[in-house]
TrEMBL record:
It is found in: Mitochondrion inner membrane. Has a dual role in the assembly of mitochondrial ATPase. The keyword rRNA-binding does not apply. The gene is ATP23. Residues 28-38 have a biased composition (Basic and acidic residues). Belongs to the peptidase M76 family. It comes from Podila minutissima. One of its GO terms (molecular function) is metal ion binding. Its main location: mitochondrion. The keyword Mitochondrion applies. This is Mitochondrial inner membrane protease ATP23. One of its GO terms (biological process) is mitochondrial proton-transporting ATP synthase complex assembly. It is an enzyme of class 3 (hydrolase). PANTHER family: MITOCHONDRIAL INNER MEMBRANE PROTEASE (PTHR21711), MITOCHONDRIAL INNER MEMBRANE PROTEASE ATP23 HOMOLOG (PTHR21711:SF0). Residues 1-38 are annotated as: Disordered.
Length: 240
């Protein structure tokens, strides 16, 4: 009797025999890639914390990149969810000076600032100057009040009294002088704390005006306009 042989069709094909091996290799490669990615992420985080493995320039660039990412994320969230930010944006539209997201720019500043307004360029958010999302929210509202004042009241920023009035309003209405912020700064009293904070913050800002010659000149400008400007809560009905 002739010996029987398995037919060609019943033999495992070369492709099917190799398939498990290839699948196994693919799975191993994918796992290794994930592990490498996780390791690289851990190493980058460690480098940012310790500075090890990075030149001073690389370290600063990574810090600025992370600060900007956080600032932009908070900006997008606050535009959508913050009642104060949305209220000011709506009132800027009503005033004929709409604020677009492109006019709210995140960028690095010196350590003394958290934001700024320029009639020509819009609002700068100091990405390295915020200690919390709430701090960025207050800063956005503060600078929007400056923009509102410039649009509605035609502020002349080289006039110290004009500048002082807008600074008083921005400090009073933005939440910048609420009790928790003052405690964080190391200032806490039980009488007229809000007014004292507004005066102090406004004076510091006016003192930085290139046309201001001294702190005394800044204080004089703030005191001259304080009562009328502190009580002018437009476009809010009351302090935010």
């Amino acid at each position: 009797m002739a010996a029987s042989h398995p037919s060609e069709s019943s033999l495992p094909s070369e492709a099917s025999a190799e398939a498990p091996t290839r699948a196994s290799e693919a799975g191993t490669s994918e796992k290794e890639a994930k592990e490498q990615k996780a390791f690289d992420r851990w190493r980058k985080t460690l480098s940012l914390i310790t500075g090890l493995g990075l030149s001073p320039e690389e370290f600063q660039a990574e810090i600025e990149k992370a600060d900007r990412k956080t600032c932009e994320l908070y900006k997008e969230q606050l535009i959508k969810t913050s009642p104060g930010v949305r209220f000011m944006m709506n009132n800027l539209v009503k005033a004929g000076c709409p604020l677009t997201k492109n006019m709210l720019d995140c960028g690095p500043c010196d350590s003394t600032k958290s934001g700024g307004f320029s009639p020509d360029h819009g609002i700068l958010l100091c990405q390295n100057g915020f200690f919390s999302k709430k701090h960025q929210e207050h800063t956005m509202i503060h600078e929007m009040i400056h923009m509102y004042d410039h649009c509605v009241f035609n502020v002349e920023w080289d006039n110290l009294r004009h500048h002082a009035c807008s600074e008083v309003r921005a400090a009073a209405l933005s939440g910048d002088c609420n009790w928790s912020r003052e405690v964080r700064r190391g200032f806490y009293t039980f009488t007229k704390q809000h007014q004292e904070c507004v005066k102090r913050r406004a004076t510091l800002s006016v003192q930085a005006n290139p046309n201001c010659t001294s702190r005394a000149a800044a204080e004089k400008a703030v005191n001259a306009v304080f009562d009328s400007c502190y009580n002018d809560t437009r476009p809010f009905d009351e302090f935010y």
